[in-house]
Amino acid sequence: MIKEEKTIVIGCDQSDTLTILLERLMSIPNFLVNVISVSRISDLLSITKSLYPSLLIFNFRNNQIAIDDFNRLVNKPEIPLLCICKRFDSEAYLLNNKNIIFTYSIDNIANRVHFASIIRSIFLLKNQSQNSMNTNSIATEAIEKDLVNTDRNMSRYVLELDQKMEVLLSVKERIKTLCPNVDNATRMELLSIVNAIKTSANDTKLWEDFKLYFEKTNPNFLLLLAKKHPKLTTKDLKYCCYLKMNMSNDDIRSLLGINQESVRTHKYRLKKKMRLNKELDLHTYLKAI
Known about the structure:
By secondary structure, the chain is of the alpha/beta class. 62% of the residues lie in helices and 11% in strands. It has helices at 15-26, 41-50, 63-73, 90-93, 112-133, 137-178, 184-201, 204-217, 221-228, 234-244, 249-256, 260-273, 282-287, and strands spanning 4-12, 31-38, 55-59, 81-85, 101-105. The relative contact order is 0.09.
């Protein structure tokens, strides 16, 4: 059975409870859970402004403040909230008529099966709600399939282009080794070919062509990304595009001409340049744009 992927953001200012929550979420059957955890309300709000998680879990000393701030500063009432609460304050959340709120007593958190059942029930209700709003599910599925195929074709295009450039660069190096062994006239011809290859390798038109192809399936992505993070370089934008296309680290390493360690370093520096929370997954953030 293919596991369904879900993104859950946990706001919890109690480390012992957070440890239990993380362990419970990672062991829910039939789901691949991508969990982002924060200890401050402000961090939770910052992350949720950028993402559309499948579920928000609140376990603050005062959940009501967190909910009020969420509604005031984020205002995404369609995201379900699960409040881990003490027995005496669970009733208060039910009075809220703006959010989709579920409550779960902290006294029951040790019950692994019961907690998993609650999470799965929330996802089931959310999926049913989304399906009821979809008036043309067959067409939607066809469109999504077409987008996936287009992304695959685009990935193949980029990789094939990169392979051709590698061949050209290899030819260039081979020509340079031959230069000392030929006469001046031939050497001048060979150097002319080397310069032509250099020009092709640095041709910005290749990037422009890629952008046109990329934006067919990701309209306004680069525009929004550059607007949100104006300090990003062309190399940074390329890296973000590759992540958006679900390319592997090996593919990115090859395309950018760097080693695996440099891929990780570039990712770290990119998150820092974008001023993203260190706990926020860069791939998840870019997929949400």
